[in-house]
């Protein structure tokens, strides 16, 4: 009787069985978000490189600020993509 209580408590009663396609689709979505986050992080590093080059070569301040803003947007997208992949 105690064994029956342990098995019934460990398995949820109303949870639908997870099919193979649903598991595959979830994994595919998670992989997509991780790859998108990595691409955005790479683009952010490239734009930060452009920002540093512009800063050292005496470019107009608004161009340096624009490059920094674009890099910050890419960092935001990278972080949000990685967080969304963790939520799945």
Report what the structure shows:
The model has no long low-confidence stretch (mean pLDDT 84). The relative contact order is 0.14. This protein has three helices and no strands. It has helices at residues 2-10, 20-56, 61-87. Helix 2 (20-56) packs antiparallel against helix 3 (61-87).
SSE arrangement:
Blueprint: H1 2-10, H2 20-56, H3 61-87
List keywords for this structure.
mainly alpha, 3 helices, rod-shaped
Give a short synopsis of this structure.
By secondary structure, the protein is mainly α. The chain has three helices and no strands. The two termini are 37 Å apart.
Count the strands?
0
Question: How much beta, percentage-wise?
Answer: under 5%
The class by helix and strand makeup works out as: mainly alpha
From the alpha-carbon coordinates, what is the Rg to the nearest angstrom? 23 Å
């Amino acid at each position: 009787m105690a064994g029956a209580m342990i098995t019934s408590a460990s398995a949820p009663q109303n949870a639908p069985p997870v099919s193979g396609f649903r598991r595959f689709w979830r994994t595919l979505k998670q992989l997509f978000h991780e790859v998108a986050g990595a691409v955005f992080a790479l683009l952010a590093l490239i734009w930060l490189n452009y920002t540093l080059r512009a800063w050292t070569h005496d470019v107009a301040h608004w161009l340096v600020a624009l490059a920094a803003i674009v890099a910050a947007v890419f960092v935001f997208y990278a972080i949000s993509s990685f967080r969304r992949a963790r939520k799945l």
